[in-house]
Amino acid sequence: MRDCPRLFIPPAHIAPMAVDAVFDLEPGQAHYLGTVMRQQAGAVVEVFNARDGAWQGVIEHLRRDRCRIRVVEQARAPAATPGLCLVFAPLKRDATETVIRMGTELGVTRFRPVVTERTNTHRINADRLSSIATEATEQCERLDVPTIDALAPLTTVLSQWPDDTALFAALERMPQAVAAPAPHVGCGVLIGPEGGFSPREHEMLCRQAFVRPLSLGALVLRADTAAAAALALVGSGLKALCGKTS
């Protein structure tokens, strides 16, 4: 069903999906199908969420901002995904949106934006970022849409971090290589702002037992590039581990 549109349906909006179940889309989704994708009644779509998995559906009625979907059959069962949290300092608008998009594609399940001593952006548009995460989820064929927390100080996030969950911190010019995350626990990745962490923050991070320095090589990367590189490294470890323990 890769050629048909994919639509995320929040579990809170509908009853559990089943064969022949019928539900109405949100007006924005109906407009997207009819105006942007040029779909008509009888067309096949894929509807999904983490609770129900992915299901094939048929458009029964479509007019302007109204669309009714009838569920036909399940295409993919729901599956548990390893928790992967990205803690990051917000960047300029385009760069922050890139981090959300790439992070979603690379398996992030929770975004935690933080304020550091060198953070230049102290506001985020949560609705806009949530929309980008949803669009990226639909595009990359995953089932769950990552959550986006409210902006918080780095010290607050560290004080709340579980001791049994590794937080891989991308610190400049650190020699340590990435280690595999612990089974079934998940992990986090920490990316600093443009200009990196301050000396005080660097020292604070190195004192935390759950923080593991993560080397991204000898070159100094842009913050959004560093996020993608770190997630690729840590995410590969999680996937390999899940493959061994499944």
TrEMBL record:
Superkingdom as given in the UniProt entry: Bacteria
Gene Ontology cellular-component annotations: cytoplasm
E.C. numbers: 2.1.1.193
GO MF, one example: rRNA (uridine-N3-)-methyltransferase activity
Cited Pfam families: Methyltrans_RNA (PF04452), PUA_4 (PF20260)
Coiled-coil stretches noted in the UniProt entry, renumbered to this chain: none
SUPFAM superfamilies found in the cross-reference section: alpha/beta knot, PUA domain-like
Top-tier EC class: transferase
GO biological process: rRNA base methylation
Record-annotated Ribosomal RNA small subunit methyltransferase E PUA-like domain positions: 28-71
Localization annotation: Cytoplasm
Keywords: Cytoplasm, Methyltransferase, rRNA processing, S-adenosyl-L-methionine, Transferase
Residue ranges constituting the Ribosomal RNA small subunit methyltransferase E methyltransferase domain according to the UniProt record: 84-234
Catalytic activity: uridine(1498) in 16S rRNA + S-adenosyl-L-methionine = N(3)-methyluridine(1498) in 16S rRNA + S-adenosyl-L-homocysteine + H(+)
Record has Disulfide bond as a keyword: no
Stated family: Belongs to the RNA methyltransferase RsmE family.
NCBIfam families: PRK11713.3-2, PRK11713.3-5, RsmE family RNA methyltransferase
Function: Specifically methylates the N3 position of the uracil ring of uridine 1498 (m3U1498) in 16S rRNA. Acts on the fully assembled 30S ribosomal subunit.
Name of the protein in its database record: Ribosomal RNA small subunit methyltransferase E
Species annotation: Komagataeibacter sucrofermentans
